[in-house]
Write a structure and sequence with these properties.
The protein is mostly beta strands. It folds into 2 domains: 88 residues, Sandwich (Immunoglobulin-like); 99 residues, Immunoglobulins (Immunoglobulin-like). The chain is 8% helix and 49% strand. The strands form 3 sheets. Strands 2, 4, 7, 8, 10, 12 and 13 form a 7-stranded mixed β-sheet that branches. The protein is rod-shaped, with a radius of gyration of 38 Å.
């Protein structure tokens, strides 16, 4: 049986639906381009740094390997390496610090970077440049009889060397290791002229070195003791 509802009654429903759809379109805005997302397998890099590297001034043969995980394989970089060292990058997510350090000695902080399409990772690394000890002066240590004085024995090297003395000092003098790469012989020598042969040894984690010299006491008139001879010898490497 035909519907008795007049056709004009259906039009308000259509108008209401159209208005609602229009409001939704305004709220949501026009459809934009599809967004690109990384592949699910992509992952930001993660750096692996072993114990902090140590090189010895002027010596070759030491290398330090840096590794980074990530997909794609990360590229590794190092900022401001100490003079004489270089970074060799490999295609497998690793790189090597190598070369011959030329100084200065000490602890230096560098920044290591691993980067791929998924992101970047940064780490700070302390690179230590060590140096074998050496005495700055080889000559005899001289005092004047009856006069209070201090004579400082100096070395170079990193870490700072400990200094020891073997032999008998002239009466009135004492030896002190200052713990900073220097040592002192001080006091008031009683007799002169005289000369006492001694052996000084400087030791750090790189090696040791010995110096044979003399501690001389001259009289107030300036008359020196007998002549002395100085020799320098380098000992074997010692463990830290």
């Amino acid at each position: 049986m035909p519907s008795s509802r007049p056709p004009q009654l259906r039009r308000p429903v259509i108008v209401v639906v159209s208005v609602v759809l229009g409001v939704l379109a305004l709220l949501c805005g026009p459809a934009g381009p599809a967004r690109a997302y990384p592949y699910a397998s992509d992952s930001g890099p993660t750096l692996t740094l072993p114990a902090e590297p140590t090189f010895v001034l002027g010596q070759t043969g030491t290398s330090y390997v840096i590794e980074a995980d990530g997909d794609p394989v990360p590229a590794i970089g190092v900022d401001k390496l100490p003079a004489g060292l270089r970074l060799t990058s490999h295609a497998d997510g690793s790189a090597t610090i190598e070369g011959t350090a030329t100084g200065p000695v000490g602890d230096m902080i560098v920044e290591v970077t691993a980067q791929n399409a998924a992101g970047a990772s940064y780490e700070r690394l302390t690179v230590t440049i060590q140096q074998a000890p050496a005495f700055r002066s080889r000559g005899p240590v001289t005092f004047v009889a009856g006069e209070l004085a201090t004579r400082v024995i100096r070395t170079v090297g990193f870490p700072a060397a400990g200094i020891g003395l073997e032999g008998e000092l002239p009466a009135g003098l004492t030896f002190t290791d200052n713990g900073d790469g220097t040592a002192s012989i001080s006091g008031t020598p009683v007799d002169g002229p005289t000369s006492s042969p001694v052996t000084l040894t400087a030791v750090n984690v790189v090696s040791d070195v010995s110096l044979t010299t003399a501690v001389q006491v001259v009289s107030r008139s300036g008359s020196p003791g007998p002549p002395v001879f100085v020799s320098l010898s380098t000992g074997p490497r010692r463990a830290p």
